[in-house]
Each structure stands twice: as C-alpha cells, then as structure tokens.
Write a structure and sequence with these properties.
Helix content: 55-70%
Oligomer: single chain
Structural class: mainly alpha
Radius of gyration: 16 Å
Shape: elongated
Order of helices and strands: HHHHH
Largest sheet: none
Strand content: under 5%
C-alpha cells in the first residue's frame, strides 16, 4: 500500500481524498434506512447509517475508525499535493463536509430540513 501511495501524483491524491470523503458522506450521512429487514418496527428507516451504527452509542471503536480514516486521507493528500493552496482548500472543505455530520451534537439533526423524511 505504501508503494502505491508513493507513486501518486498531485491530482490522483486529490481525487482519492475527495472521492473517499464524499463517498463516505453519501453512504454514512445521506442514505437512510437499511438494506435488510430489521426487528425494530421500522425505526431504522428514519435514521442514517451513521445514526444506526452501534445503536447510536458515541465514541465506539467503529465510529472512531470512520472518523479517523478521512483525517488520515486528508493528511496524505495534503502532503502529496505539497500543500498547494487550491488543493488544500478543496481537501479541507471535503474533510469538513465529512467530519461535521459525525459530531455527537448533530446526532439526529436535519439541517434546513434536508433528508427529514
């Protein structure tokens, strides 16, 4: 894996970080419900995958992993793009768009009513 990362160009590192970040946002924070039936009488259909993860308990090992992985990608992408201002701003915006919804204060909160139903 380290050999693959060493050969990344600036653009490839940028796309890797942004695609991973936005993919995690969609999968964890935008899509609601479950792909299978659950015995919770339909309560899961109103929650995102992040809210269902570990039954809503904060700071578990799986939540920490999903929080740390975009941060590591952010550092790698920033390093391999040599902290270019344009890439740095795009990487920071991508990182914040993934980390802010993971905050415990935003558990179950729908900003501007987006994804309410």
């Amino acid at each position: 894996m380290l050999y693959i990362i060493c050969w990344l160009t600036e653009t490839e590192a940028q796309y890797m970080a942004m695609d991973k970040g936005q993919g995690m946002y969609v999968f964890l924070h935008a899509v609601k419900g479950t792909p299978f039936e659950t015995p919770d009488q339909g309560k899961a259909r109103l929650l995102t995958h992040w809210e269902q993860l570990d039954y809503g308990v904060q700071f578990t090992s799986s939540r920490k992993f999903f929080t740390i992985s975009p941060i590591i990608l952010y550092f790698l992408a920033s390093f391999y793009t040599k902290y270019d201002p344009t890439h740095f701003i795009l990487n920071t915006a991508s990182l914040l768009s993934v980390l802010i919804p993971k905050m415990p204060q935003l558990h179950g909160v729908r900003i501007f009513g987006i994804n309410k139903y």
